[in-house]
């Protein structure tokens, strides 16, 4: 019994340390993207509109074009397979996808994100940034397969690095220079205007 208690104690310490390492790695950023943060903090709230679900919001939140052309933060994070991902946007195009499990539109677009990643695997890397815990996502993926990179436990990245608190799912297409090419809501299908917009830009910048 004494040995079991020792084992349990060290197991708890190991799990706590693993969680600390993961959270720490999910919160690092590089460089000072002052232009990005200035743009985020100085958005005009003059024009207010009703969203499709009757939420009063600033027009820029609906249009999602307020970051086009701006540098976006780089970051390092541990993916769902335990691999460190250094997201620096060098090389191919990158699509950052922000979501969480209890978001029906987020779930609805997963098959179309899979298709986009599979179709343009040579040109595009889809990085899924999720608020939920690793074990919850792994269980979720048993019924909803995901073929692109998933970053779990990403609340710090979402709230502090990207200062994002509204509007899921959200997709941001970024060029190899680290600048935003487009930002859209979720995809309802391959014929959805948002899907077509991202697809058009992928083809434009890679072929």
Notable traits:
7 helices, 207 residues, five-stranded mixed β-sheet, Glutaredoxin, globular, alpha+beta, disordered N terminus, three-stranded antiparallel β-sheet
Topology of this protein?
Elements: H1 2-25, E1 28-30, H2 34-41, E2 48-50, E3 56-58, H3 59-63, E4 74-78, E5 84-87, E6 93-99, H4 104-119, E7 124-130, H5 134-141, E8 149-151, H6 155-161, E9 170-174, E10 180-184, H7 193-206
Parallel strand pairs: 6-7, 7-8
Antiparallel strand pairs: 1-4, 2-3, 4-5, 6-9, 9-10
Quick structural gist:
The chain is globular.
Description of the molecule:
The protein has 207 residues and is an alpha+beta fold. It has a single domain (2-206), classed as Glutaredoxin (3-Layer(aba) Sandwich), CATH 3.40.30.10. It contains seven helices and ten strands. The chain has helices spanning 2-25, 34-41, 59-63, 104-119, 134-141, 155-161, 193-206; strands spanning 28-30, 48-50, 56-58, 74-78, 84-87, 93-99, 124-130, 149-151, 170-174, 180-184. The strands form three sheets. It has a five-stranded mixed β-sheet, with helices on both faces. A three-stranded antiparallel β-sheet has the order 1-4-5. Strands 2-3 form a two-stranded antiparallel sheet. It is globular and about 40 Å long. The chain starts with a helix and ends with a helix. The model is unreliable at 2-31 (pLDDT under 50).
